[in-house]
Amino acid sequence: MRGTRGVGKAWRESVAGRIWRQGAEVELMHRAMGFAALGMVTLMPLLIVVAAAAPYRRAGFEEWIVDGMGLSAAPAGAVRRLFATPGTVLSTTSALSLASLAVFGLSFAASVETVYLRIWDLPAAPWHSAWRRAVWLAALTGYLFAEAQSGRVLRSGWPSSGVRVPLTLAAGTVFFWWGQRFLLGHRVPGRPALTGALCTMAGLVGLRVFSVLVLSPLTVSNAIAYGPVGTLLMVQCWLIGVGFVVFGGPLVGRQLHQRGERPDPEREPAADTPGRARYREDGPTGEAAVDAHGPGHAHGPGTR
Questions:
Q1: Contact 71, 219 (CB under 8 A)
Q2: Torsions phi, psi of 212, nearest 5?
Q3: I need a labelling partner for 136 at 20 to 30 A (CA). Which of 144, 158, 271, 296 fits?
């Protein structure tokens, strides 16, 4: 019995144990599926519209998918057939569709911010910081658009790949490091955020390898068996993997910087549901506080 308890205690205090426990608290897979669903209705039209409005030959959402999944010619053709051409997009885009796109985009940014808050156990930011979501969404769109263009410009040959791969890794690391800190109002320490960004990029590299070996042939077989629906299903599976990595990277980065801390099983993660935790301002000085369980449990700024 003592041996079993010792093993259990060692697991709870290990980095892997803390990552597993916090992943369950954050509901990592559930959040990744939400990321994929919102990403499909947000990032897809955003990148298609931006590509259509660009004054030169451009790559859009379909090229980002093809490049990110590392698809060969046959599955890449199946993915490209899912999306409209830039000329068709411009001729059918209305003010109402752009407004709807903005609403979905801000909802997507808010969902990412919520997961980051839970990963870092931070209270929600005040309402007037919502502008950060719009800036982050614009930066994300620009980053993905640039990635798609680089795939078209620097795709063929080892010399081009030797230039593109380091640039892609560096740009991705900078974006994911900056993105989580910016969304959370720079309340995340720089070094753990950088570690999380590096873990995110490592995870995306692993996801690409998995996609080349597994998802690419499955895309071809699903396209033959089920048509466009089968292709769309594989794209959604890949987006779920992207969401898992994007949220899992910061989680791993945080836990790697807490190696010396003893786990607290009573710790309650920052919640995103009403009645658990909310950000408010008390008194004439506007001092921030988190009300976790009601009037008798107010805390100071940044406390848990």
A1: yes
A2: -60, -40
A3: 271
